[in-house]
Amino acid sequence: MTSATPPLRLQNVLAQRGLASRRAAAEIIRDGRVRVNGVAILEPCHRVDSNVDAIELDGQPVSIAAPRRLTVMLHKPPGYICSADRRQGPSVCDLVTAAGTRLVPVGRLDKPSEGLLLLSNDGDIVLKLSHPRYGHTKEYHVIVRGEINPATLDSLRSPIEIDGKLTRPAAVEPIAPDALRFLLGEGRNQQIRRLCQRAGLHVVRLIRVRINALRLPPDLPPGQWRELTPAELDLALNQPG
């Protein structure tokens, strides 16, 4: 009797089980830490049937069952990076280890920034929420130091070149004498900070409060997370704010 499951690359099986990214899984395999049916495999592209073959990592069986799809919201505190590479500081991934599966950040908030961040182990959701072509709107509240006047606002609303490409215009409105609301449809690398610098403003605090119609709950403290409900996931994926 043969399995109906098509063979998969060994590195993809490790990644799907939430044990590592595909790149990290390839290194784990090359290091000789993975055995299939008792034999050490050094080739990440080695094909396996996870329903038939016995796979071990560091002598421990790799679960046959793939982790359930999970997307969470985190109130990101400042000082954490949105990457698993901890050479630049503590990672947001360290804050969600209790989820029991490997979650990756959906998009990015830079290290000093804070607020609403989604993490998921569902590749389709990560793509739909992070790729610019889907046009999701993100809202940020930014406390600044400097004078906010009509010329400042004109500068903030004008495109800026990042990595050789002009950004889309940002929607910007004052919400306090020292605070601004930014609405972005793409969110390029440090876009808000670059816009503020060009306009002669210094960013004191940058908080993301909304992704589409999904808002950061007021009862979710910094550093805490919870699983999204299906309705909340729909707000983030399909409901403009």
Task: Assign a percent range to the helix content.
Answer: 10-25%
Order of helices and strands: EHHEEEEEEEEHEHEEEEHEEEH
**Shape estimate:** elongated
Structural class: alpha+beta
Q: Tell me the distance between the termini.
A: 52 Å
Q: Biggest sheet, in brief?
A: 9 strands, mixed
- Oligomer state equals single chain
Proportion of residues in extended strands: 25-35%
Number of helices: 6
Low-confidence stretches: none
The overall pLDDT average reads: 90
According to DSSP, the number of beta strands is 17
What does this structure look like?
The protein is of the alpha+beta class and 241 residues long. It has six helices and 17 strands. The strands form four sheets. Strands 7, 8, 9, 10, 13, 14, 15, 16 and 17 form a nine-stranded mixed beta sheet that branches. A four-stranded antiparallel beta sheet has the order 3-2-5-6. Helix 1 packs across helix 2. The longest helix has 9 residues, at 22-30. The mean pLDDT is 90.
